[in-house]
Amino acid sequence: MDFDELYQSIILDHSKRPRNRGTLSPPVTHGSGYNPACGDEVTVFVRQSPERGIEQVSFESQACAICTASTSLMTTQVKGKTREQALALQRRFIDFLTKDAPEEGLGNLQALGGVKKFPQRLKCATLGWHALEAALSGLDKEPVTSE
Amino acid sequence: MNFPGLANQYRADFPILSQEVNGHPLVYLDNAASTQRPTAVIEELARYYREDHANVHRGLHTLSNRATALYEKARVSVAHYLNAKKAESIVFTRGTTEGINLVAESWGSRNLRRGDLIVLTEMEHHANLIPWQIIARKTGAILHFLPIQDDTGAIEWSELAELCRQGNVRLVALTHISNSLGCVNPIKQVCQTAKKYGAVTLIDAAQSAGHAFLDVDDIECDFLVFSSHKCCGPTGIGVLYGRQELLDSMEPYQTGGEMIVSVSWNEAKWKPAPHRFEAGTPHIAGAVGLAKALEYLESIGRRKIEESDHFFGTAAAERLRELPKMRLLGPVADRAGIVSFQLGTIHAHDLVAFADQYGVALRGGHHCNQPLMRKLGLMASARASFYFYNTETEIDRLISVLRDAAKYFGD
Fold it and tell me: Which residues 326-355 of B have a C-beta within 8 angstroms of A?
């Protein structure tokens, strides 16, 4: 059934037991995402250096299962990547959900493919990724919105 | 309390309800967002377009005369429905939101002064909050919120009299039935207090007009607003009732055709109320459909609908309380047919998506009550809202789907 495709076991697992949840001690940059339609909020924290890229990443969320799981999965994937690699992955992931781009290189992020049949949940799946982008840009500004 | 059984008689009037959603019979519990329409209303809209449509108030031909007569007759029907003495005190709007914006702009911007108090409650819908924020900013008036005490939505109403005694309360605007908490506010008592101290009152009747008996003469409110689509009528039309002297003293909200007596290159004269507030071609079919919807509700009887709501609200709340980790919002007694809740740590959107897979339509989110939800420490909540066409079995379906969701998303 489509619904179980949306809430695959890996999604339920990451929503109930999110990885890398919490804040990071400085030096750290952060970015926040806000979905005005439902009030969901995600803040992503990254510690990055020019030599070693993304050393640490974590997040805090007040959000639905899809959003929390997508952000949790995201943190497991971008740790150790350079800023450019992380942003490339973000684009590939969003293209996978919105433009039916192939799933190559997405690893367990493919589990979010069920969102394609539930377009109203697309913003849930991408909110944490927009917060990541804001965190990587290193500018502590107004939360990016999903609009 | 026994199931009032209105569904036995009236559910069949609503063709949309007899369908399957995702392979299950539809259980429509999102009536606070919008109710459904009976065949009588759907057919009246079609009949109007098929037989009587032309533009109104330009009556030089038969169809225009017919359309005008129907449109103005709808105004009379609304006046009767609210027990307003004059049809001229009924303005057709796009809905509750436009009604409040109209009053805020046309009455508020001319009558509110720096330091005046606009008193609202903490449970107002954004539609009865943001227009006042804007007018407060423009005029220097100050917003004051009567606080809710806890999850039940109880308000210490004596604070209002206290504020009024201090002298600068100019407007009291409040919801009759809370769209998120389901509590019924004592509007008559509030209006009496406000009137005693010369404050103007506005009642947001969005959740009550299709559910409760409203008598503006008895309530003694100055303004009352509601939307047609929450009482079995078409979308895109609503009502502003205003006390005649106030409406007559107000400037237009929008300007253009239909609302003028005469126009020269440099100035124009307005028609009296209500037409002064109805610039442009109005939603004629909407008004005609609304009149049919109100006639339909009257044929059932609003007291009966009110009893039915009370049954559903109370019965659903009782059953929901049996679920583990249930946090129920709203009053214990005197609940309207609206029940909001948080089930364990399950996010409202996940819950609503889950219920939808079993044909159960709920609302999830902040219900346009963001500051209220924040005060209660919630990002969002799920809501089941009932109408007279719902059945007792549908409460069972709700409880059963929530039990399944708790298993699905549970720890």
Answer: 346-350, 353-354
Which amino acid is residue B92, in one-letter code? F
What's the predicted TM-score (pTM) here? 0.94
pLDDT reported for residue B167: 82
B32 CB burial (10 A radius; 0-12, 13-18, 19+): buried
Beta bridge partners of A59: A21, A44
Burial of A147 (0-12, 13-18, 19+ CB in 10 A): exposed
Q: ipTM of the assembly? A: 0.86
Instruction: Assign B319 to helix, strand or coil.
Output: helix
According to CATH, what is the number of the domain B42-299? 3.40.640.10
pLDDT digits (tens, 9 = 90+) for B197-233: 999 999 999 999 999 999 999 999 999 999 999 999 9
Would you call B353 and A6 a contact, using CB atoms and an 8 Å cutoff? yes
CA neighbours closer than 13 Å in the CB half-sphere of residue A126:
24
| Contacts A7 to B, Cβ<8 Å | 350, 408
Q: Do B365 and A37 touch (CB under 8 A)?
A: yes
Interface-testing mutation among A9, A12, A64, with chain B (most B C-beta atoms within 10 A): A64
Alpha-carbon Rg for chain B, nearest whole angstrom, is 22
d(CA B17, CA B390): 9
- Residues in chain A closer than 8 A to B357 (CB atoms): 1, 3
Q: What pLDDT does A71 receive? A: 98
Q: How confident is the model at residue B304 (pLDDT cuts 50, 70, 90)?
A: very high
d(CA A93, CA A105): 9
- Domain definitions of chain B by residue range: 6-30+302-409, 42-299
B108: confidence class by pLDDT, cuts 50, 70, 90: very high
B333 Cβ neighbours under 8 A, 6+ residues apart: none
CATH architecture of A2-145: Alpha-Beta Complex (3.90)
Q: Are the beta carbons of B350 and A16 separated by less than 8 Å? A: no
Domain B6-30+302-409 class in CATH: alpha beta
Q: Who's near B125: CB < 8 A, 6+ residues apart?
A: B96, B175, B179, B204, B206, B367, B368, B369
What contacts B336, CB < 8 A, 6 or more positions away?
B177, B178, B182, B183, B184, B207, B208, B211, B212, B309, B310, B313
Mean pLDDT by 10 residues, chain A (147 residues): 86 95 92 87 93 94 95 96 95 95 92 92 95 84 63
Task: Parse chain A into domains and list their residue ranges.
Answer: 2-145
Contact B365 A38 (CB under 8 A): yes
Half-sphere exposure of B398 (CA within 13 A, CB side): 33
